[in-house]
Amino acid sequence: MTTPEAATVIVGGTAPQMLDDLRSRRDLSVLAAGETLGAAFVGVLSAALGRLPASLRTGAPVVMAATDYCVSATSRYVSRCVEAEAGGRRLRPSEAMTPEPAQLLQELAAAGDWDGPGYVLISPRAATLQAVRWAWGTISAGLHEAMVVCELVRDPHGDGYRVAAVPVTAAGSARTSPADGSGGTGGTGRTAARRPRRPSGPSGPSVVLSGTGLVTAFGDGGAVFWQNLLAGGRGLSELTRFDASRFRSTTVCQTKVEAEPGQPTRRALVDRARAEALREAGLPELPDRTLLVYAGVVPHLPQVSDAPRIDEIALEPDWDGDGSGIAPRNAVLMAHACASGAFGLAMAREWLLCGLADTAAVIGVSALNAYDYACLDVLRATSTTAARPFDEDRSGVTVGEGAGVIVLETAERAAARGHAPLATLSGISCRVAGQGVSRLNAHIGAACMREALVMAGLTTVDYVHGHAPGTRQGDEAELLALDRIGAEHGWRGVPVSSYKGAAGHLLHASVFPGVVAAVRALRAEVLPGTPGLRKPLDTRHVRVLRDPEPCAGIRSVMVDNFGFGGNNAAFLLTGGAAGRMKWSRDG
Q1: Is the pLDDT reported for residue 83 higher than 50?
Q2: Which of 281, 279, 235, 285 is nearest to 257 (CA)?
């Protein structure tokens, strides 16, 4: 085990009085107030990264606790939605572009040489504690040589924020930067190695998927989703959850789930998915030392607590993990737009490998609501017909409704209890970087794919389950990224497809149907097609599937997961015939 140590905490922000009150503290390095939060954030984080040895600056993970910022930004956006609806109008683009917290990390990546993994935690009451535990645990176990923990706290007397960051390293790491932390992040280039000190790829400890649960417009369970996906089914329906008359499109993939009186739809969806995941994992309930990572909802929003149907996106004030029984210190909310699920898998993997948890459950839910829908509508991201992923005539997203749960544990723990896992999470890469709020950057997408392959010890895969929401720019950029990887490794027609023409885009929960499709493909040795696809986009090194096809001996699947705000992720699931398990009758 390695002993971690923290450097001096660096503090900045946009609240001058808060900073002035801290200047007498000798244990802090207080910077001048910035004119904007973005500038202040970049200044503080650059100074913190500058405290690290030069070889670690570009790739050190940054974990940000941003509950206050998320609550404030989301509350402002909800207020604008309510005002627009009361006035019988649609939002203006300037009103819709409320930044995801991860966009601050995107600004950091754009400002210098840092391009390491970045994670945003917005857990009520525990985000900062979780970030510190993550850094301490992974450095102690040798998974990372350095991490930076960051916190955003709102000024209780104004609109400003305090930004604090501290570098955490293995004890005795060499210091090569100025004592005042002004060394910045430059000088090392973007190609610096980022290898974990302890093996965590094919030759080291591994993390496995022990159970999955899913609810989509096709109904409850992974089996019904898979059957409809193979049959080319499309779960399209008319939007009835709320009045959508002012929006461009009312075509969605809505579930038939009706919650009990007083219960939000999102809670009913999660309950169903969790029950299936636990059943598939062979667990009566989540064990005591479980990490619960939740994607798709935000903390309680007191400023707009009376907004209509706010409980579909915001948790109640005394959130208890939606009845999971997990202690608040282990119940995490993670905010990475539509890539939140994959970022959650990355966090779960590291907590399991370093012993911070015995089991992990990553949960995502998307209940149709006016707030998410209004943002996509004003960005003209929704299709007025139906999504056609990877199609030349694609015109946008069909929003879906549903929930997913993935139960993970180490391979050793699964074996000890006699459970045959569904697949191994062999490699994963998450980055917050790119250009613009809503555009997928093919270069960054390819970097995630490349790093996931390296971690898994692979140069090719048998199948790719694409993110492919059906947008003009996103689908093309994803195929460009895949072709770049294919060119590097000599791919010839690696098959790729997407589920989103069948069950719709589940937004923050979008990764879960993709994982179920990947696991089922590994087990059934069949690749699903892309429902809605008629004229596939041209590609050079991959091959877009319109219809299902057999794939005997399939052993590896790459799953892509991208989101607004520069959130990018790709991961590798491996398994297949050698570890085949018998599916239960209920999926």
Answers
A1: yes
A2: 235
What one-character DSSP code corresponds to residue 35? S
pTM over 0.70: yes
In 26-175, beta strands by DSSP E: 28-30, 62-65, 118-121, 146-154, 161-170
**Is residue 174 a contact partner of residue 478, using CB atoms and an 8 Å limit?**
no
Rounded (10°) CA dihedral 74, 77, 78, 84: 180
Pairing of strands 251-252, 146-154: unpaired
What's 249-270 look like in SS3? CCEEECCCCCCCCCCCHHHHHH
Question: In angstroms, rounded to a whole number, what is the distance separating the alpha carbons of residues 297 and 527?
Answer: 32
Burial of 466 (0-12, 13-18, 19+ CB in 10 A): buried
Q: What is the distance between the alpha carbons of residues 240 and 252, in angstroms, rounded to a whole number?
A: 9
**Alpha helices, DSSP H only, in 364-469?**
370-378, 411-416, 442-456
β strands within 349-454, DSSP E: 359-366, 402-410, 423-432
In order of 83, 90, 174, 368, the CA distances from 80 in angstroms are: 5, 10, 50, 18
Q: Please tell me the distance from the alpha carbon of residue 367 to that of residue 506, in angstroms, as a whole number.
A: 8
- Asked if 333 and 121 count as a contact pair (C-beta separation under 8 A), the reply is yes
User: Tens digit of pLDDT for each residue in 390-424?
Assistant: 999 999 999 999 999 999 999 999 999 999 999 99
Is 239 within 8 Å of 250 (Cβ atoms)?
yes
